[in-house]
Amino acid sequence: MKIRLDRTVCDGFGVCAKRAPDYFSLDDWGYASLIGDGAVAEQDHDPVMRALLDCPVHAITEIGEPRPSVPDPPLRDMDDPAAHLKTESNEAQWGFTR
Amino acid sequence: MNSQVTTQPTLITVATSPGCPPRLVGEQPVKGREDFAAYRQLGGYLPLASGDELLGEVESSGLLGRGGAAFPLAVKLRSVRDNGRLIGGTGGTAVVANGEEGEPASIKDRWLLRNRPHMVLDGLRLAATIVAADRAYVYVSDHESARSVETALSELDSETLGISVGVLTVQPGYVAGEETAAVRMINGGPAKPTDKPPRPFEAGVAGRPTLVSNVETLANLAYLQCHGSAAFRLQGTSLSPGTFLATITGAGRPPVLYELPHGLPFTELLALHGISPSQVRGTLMGGYFAGFLNRGVLETNLDHETMRGLGSGLGCAAISVITDDCPVAVAASVLAYFDRENAGQCGSCFNGTAAMAAAAGALRDGAASSEDVDRLRRWSVVLRGRGACATLDAATNVAASLLDQFPAEVAHHLEDGCQDCGNHPFRADRPYEAEAVRHA
């Protein structure tokens, strides 16, 4: 089993570190980071799954093999995500940090 | 409020190192944007018979990425190509030329895009061939760069380029240049980083394996096709081969863009820049990323192995020379920048940068206690690696290197106060920026 923690989603509830302290560490403000590379030992499966299921914001997910078993169809013109961007009103034009 | 923010294009001085023929900046002085005919005359846009053969050349050349991380380009190209083959058929990968230069102290990528857009596009089409991409993008924030690339594209026929290229413009921001931010924006989201895994080489544009490469790296790829790996290695060191573009700011002088051979002694750069070593207090390395070096920098060579050995980094080769400014005040300004400019996504980052900026600001103002400095030291260690992107790491590098490289200055601020900060306190929203931002 392998897991990932999306720290852009974590809201600092800290439940994960209570359930599986060997896999999650909290900073001074209670936000979590993964200890290690996300590989979970067989004997730790249950507490880590508790952490995953109990996370109120679903920041922890189980990841499978790095490659999808069913490949996406090849890109075609209509699939180009950038083709749908509206230059003035798109979120990416304004929805960032500055 | 949605105010337009952009950089204010300036005439930047460009210089080269004696004995190092320019590869990227071209012959000087520059006579404006290089057009298709001029670039073609220099040997650009050569037909590419075999992507695998060129990949072999990239491997032999040892070309490292110029975006800051110095990741071997050959490894990245091979990973994207192989992942593309794994998921199906002949490819279906994407390539992105990343010209969103988020580092305020750097100007090299904008200079290349504004003046030599064809060299970047040439490298992009070569990368696309190697990884069998069917999508290519140029990702920028600078409007002048976007215009230059679009004009260059209009000069090209589809046969020469071999792939359709989209130009995407975002508003400038420190985090917008991160590779996952580029992918996220192209996929229709905000230009903010995502957590890893996956990295773009695994799943990027439309979930496809994607090569995101800095524009200077791609320009070097074009050079490699034209001249080969042996010629590429004629400059630089064995571990940091080739030349690099360095933005030199600070020391009360206007910024200059240099093309330098890796391994150049720092003192030779100072001589080129007209600064006496006796004036130098230290440097800020790799833009705002790699932190400070004290006067020990005078003994260094400008290559990745030397800088790593010192616990620092060449990064994107933006080097700010500190002469009269107090390093404590510089650190406080840089940390305040990170407090403002972080993506606001990861709790460890928006809390950590705010806390470190507050501690450094108090230290600058003579209001900090030794406990504040202890906290700053602890945060500079324990917060490392806790963000989805490298912004928090950059902040920890600045804090840690301030305490490590300038202990006497820190002690002065704690004890009897700093004379420099008392006389003319250094404060800047974007310390040592290479180009001013314009709010329209």
Question: Can I get a quick summary?
Answer:
The complex is a heterodimer of chains A (98) and B (440). Helix content of chain A is 19%, strand content 14%. Chain A is an alpha+beta fold.
Give structural notes.
The complex is a heterodimer of chains A (98) and B (440). In chain A, 19% of the residues lie in helices and 14% in strands. By secondary structure, chain A is an alpha+beta fold. In chain A, a hairpin with a 5-residue loop joins strand 2 (24-26) and strand 3 (32-34). Chain A is globular and about 45 Å long. By secondary structure, chain B is α/β, with parallel strands linked by helices. In chain B, the strands form four sheets. Chain B has a six-stranded mixed beta sheet with strand order 2-8-7-13-10-11. In chain B, helix 4 runs parallel beside helix 6 (143-154) and helix 5 (117-130) crosses helix 9 (215-232). The radius of gyration of chain B is 21 Å and the shape is globular. Classes of the chains: A alpha+beta (98), B alpha/beta (440). At the A-B interface, helix 3 of A face helix 3, strand 4, strand 5, helix 8 and helix 13 of B.
Topology at a glance:
The complex is a heterodimer of chains A (98) and B (440).
Chain A: E1 2-5, H1 15-19, E2 24-26, E3 32-34, H2 45-54, E4 60-63, H3 91-94
Antiparallel strand pairs in A: 1-4, 2-3
Chain B: E1 5-7, E2 13-16, H1 36-41, H2 51-61, H3 73-87, E3 93-98, H4 108-115, H5 117-130, E4 133-140, H6 143-154, H7 158-161, E5 165-169, H8 179-186, E6 210-214, H9 215-232, E7 243-250, E8 256-261, E9 264-265, H10 266-273, E10 282-285, E11 291-293, E12 301-302, H11 304-309, E13 318-322, H12 327-341, H13 347-364, H14 370-382, H15 391-405, H16 407-414, H17 419-423, E14 437-439
Parallel strand pairs in B: 2-8, 3-4, 3-6, 4-5, 7-13
Antiparallel strand pairs in B: 1-14, 7-8, 9-12, 10-11, 10-13
